[in-house]
Amino acid sequence: MDLSLKEYNSLIRPLGRTASVSELNLFFNNTISYLKNLVYSNEKHDGLDILTNICDDLACVRAIQLYDHPIIRNHPIFIYIGRTLEVLLMKSNHLRSIPMKKCEENCFYSVSYFIAQLCLYHNEPIQTFYGSFSNESFSVTDKINIRDESINENNRKSNKISDKPNLKITCIPPSAPEARSTNKILFDITDTPKKRLFSNEIISPLIETEEIIESKIPSNLPSKRYQDVFFTTSFLNKFIRSIDDLSRNEYSSYHVKYKVIDRLVRLCSKLNIINELFDSIISCLCSKFYQQIFLTIEPEQIRLSPKQLFFIYQCTQFIIQNQFQQQEQIPNLLCQTMINTTKIIIEYIFPMNDDELNSIYFHQQDIALYALNCHLELLNYLSLTSNGRRYFLQTNIIDLTMNILQQDQLIVNACEHEELFHSDIAVIVHTIMLLYNLAYEKQIFLILKKRDFLNIYFKLKSSNDKSIKFVCKTLSSILNQDQIHEENEPMKLKQAYIKHLEEPTEKSKDKTVPDIVRITRERDDNIKLAILNETYITNLSRDVEELSRNESSISPAKYKSIGQRVRVVTKQETKEVESLLDPILKCLNSSFYLKIFENIELSHGKVISGIIQTNRSLATKHIFFMRECPEFLFRHDYKRRKEIANSLGRKMLEHTKTIFNQHLSILIGEEGKQPVDEMKAARMIALSYHIKVLNHFTLIRSIRKEFLSLSIIEQILKILQDRSLTDRDQIVNEAKTAVVEQSLILLYSLGQEKEIIGILRKKNLFDICLKLRIVKDRIIRFVSQILLTLLDKDAHKHIHEPHSLSKTCIEYIDKAVKETRKSYQGIKLHRLLKNLEIMTVNDTFIECLLEAKQGITVFIKCICIKYFDEKDSDSENKEMISRIHNSAVSIIWRISSYGPKPISKLKANDLFIDQILILSKGKTENTKRAANGIIWRLGNEDKIRFEKSQKKRNQENKTDDDQVIEPEEWDESIPYDLLISYSNKTNDKIISGKIYNRLITKGYRVYSEKSGQNRFELMQKAIDSKKPILVCLSSAYRASTVCMAEVEYASKQSSPIISVIVEAKYDVQGWLKHLIGGKKTIDVTQKKFDEGFINILEEIEKTNSSN
């Protein structure tokens, strides 16, 4: 390495330990100065080496904490780094003619890694597995010099070592210097001996103070995001071409281009930059390299090469994990290719000429099985919709999958393991999942019913893996039915499977489990998948009612068993389990509820040394009354909520005085400062359970009024005001966290009453929330922030950690939308949205919402909530949903002003468009105004996002030779009678061409736009002539940005639109339906073409006569 780079190494290391903004800024300034004045030549590459070293070092040193500072964010060095990556991407697209040098490959890899770190982690310091970093610098000797009185023991956080003195330092006087200096040293390369002279120095020897640096920086720096700095339009275009290049050209398996593109695709997926890459990733999956890459996997290969990893894993996961604007087209684009590839992969891994494949063979093929699993996962994804399943009908996919399941040794290996991510288990699971997804196609369902799966079930019965058990039971229950009805059932099964995986597994299993316990576990597992019948609910109701009457004769095992069964039925629909509600109410109304708080007991299970248990430390009886019964009540009392609140709710308020008097003292005062043992932790968890019950009843206004005459509010405020609540690092003790969360939610619910919110303001709740919103618990921060918004409408001006807050808001909204009562964890959806209306005035918070994957989607879900059926609805429900709509429309109106991305997402959702059109004609004036504003904004979006569909236009250019209709330039001198607009899908072109030719023979002068670079501009001129435009509608037409821009422009110009459907069973919905004005469409696919053509002629004449 050059001497200059060696000197650079000594300069960057001090930055890594204790850098400041001014030092990092000075370092960047001098680096740019060096790069600007560097004399470039073919032999020297100092500039690339400098950038490589900078990116390698700064991606991991502690200076990463400083990158969020506006001075650093706006530094031009990031422009240099971004443009360097852009240039290297461009060069990587011409590797056949201009190969990369080694220094360029190194820089390509390092720069991409640094950019990924900046964009992905939002420049926040990352805590390691072992804990957080420390700012303190220690000397080489790790033991304290006991004679040195200058050492601050509190800061060092070490005990005195008086019994065994450190012999290294015993004789050293107290005034001796430290072994390693902790002072900052700024090296001067001008003093380095034998230094090769450069025209400019890398680092100036002059040291500028922080004050001078700050004074040179403008005060009004823009708030930049790193992804906006790096992911420019120019960069994305070159990146897309790089992915396209991988689908056309082949490089060595470990070429750096595969590593960099893989990293950037993964980064784009996490930043939600996905629609731009969609076509390129599809091209890679459809290329010959995807099929061939499986054949390059060798026996005993340890890991996938970068090339294999990109095609097999990254491309497939990109499609599976994201939602695209062209979502409906994925089966059409991928299914046939993936099905054809399946046969080649399975025949390669399971050769037909081998009668028996032993365990050694499968051990050697472990990586090949992993690759097969990735492919099967993609097939499962494609089979989730009826459109995708139809592609499997005319294939031998059943035989191929049965070939996998008939591999005896593979099944034996799968039964020996218990990890889902083991390749043997994953292949078996995804193969069976594919079968039960395909079973929802009637023809395949009939084929599968004729196959003998009993032998496979019998072999898999001994498996210990719960995933295998889940898929086997699911497939068995499907094939036991007489016929299949629901088309969307595979999506429901997918969600059930994910939920099944998320359930906590047992950490250890006792091989000598009693038979009665084993039978109970198997029964509970079966219930999770079976439909709960009336007999089961009746028996459970009887058992629960017995617990409300008896106490002494009930064993802990019975409490546990009944509690587990109640937990299972809690997840079911209310109409199936509502008969259990009365026995649950009897338990909560019984005297046992208060008794368990008066006598807290710990579980008699095995205690792990050194670990403080939480809810598991409570006895099973306490868990049943405190958690299981209330959770059932929360989910299923909706229809009787007011009746239950007036009886049980008031009783719980009476119990609160006793419970608080007994347990509140452990959280406040001197007792609150004492260490938390297991009993104390159990009491805190019990207290949080009771406050959660109070939260549930405060959703009813009459119960909220009752709090005015009680001292509960003052007692809750005492908990939150106590100094022992947080430590110096603003961390709430784990055992106290649940109490604080529920207490804040309780105050938030009570704050909906004007009298109570006035009391809370006088009690300085605002100051309490200001302190709590910076603690290291996201739920506490979230509730504190919305409480601040409730207390002061100007609180939105200073939002702490908007990234984390926006994610929590999205989580709460998403879960509340799915609940019948439209609330989650005691927070009602319409109240939360009302708070967000205020918070979205903050630009930074809106940007964070837009960055999140579900940021816009959750608000669309709120808009799409429909009123209940008239039989089940009441005025309160209608008012609640109306409030949700009002707030959601207002929030979307603000979000829609932040660039074209939110606009494109809104327009792509047909259900949203239909609902917003309904709201624009509603009764609420504010909602009508905001809904009409959204429609106006959608309609006045830029005429087309033409730059972002470059590849699609190139594909359209390729189809010019196959045009059925001969295109022509618009000529104003020719008196055309009408225009015709259609997509470039083959079927659409054939039918549109047939219509075009018939019209020509009838004497009409028809203008057809010319496809290619200027297609839209030419069509725009034609539409300006106010001639009727005949639009040939299909799913491909709806998916085409060019076609949608044409019909949108025609609608804006008030040109007559004649709608013709050219795709069988196509239903016009959403934005397209709005553009054509809801006019009658002519379907030429349902009847004879001649009859449809006559209708077209009639519509043309009617249009001409009206004009």
TrEMBL record:
GO biological process: signal transduction
Tree of life domain: Eukaryota
Pfam family, one: TIR_2
Domain TIR: 980-1093
Gene3D superfamilies: Toll/interleukin-1 receptor homology (TIR) domain
Cross-referenced InterPro entries: ARM-type_fold, TIR_dom, Toll_tir_struct_dom_sf
Cross-referenced PANTHER family: ARMADILLO-TYPE FOLD-RELATED (PTHR46270), TIR DOMAIN-CONTAINING PROTEIN (PTHR46270:SF2)
Protein name: TIR domain-containing protein
Organismal lineage: Eukaryota, Metazoa, Spiralia, Gnathifera, Rotifera
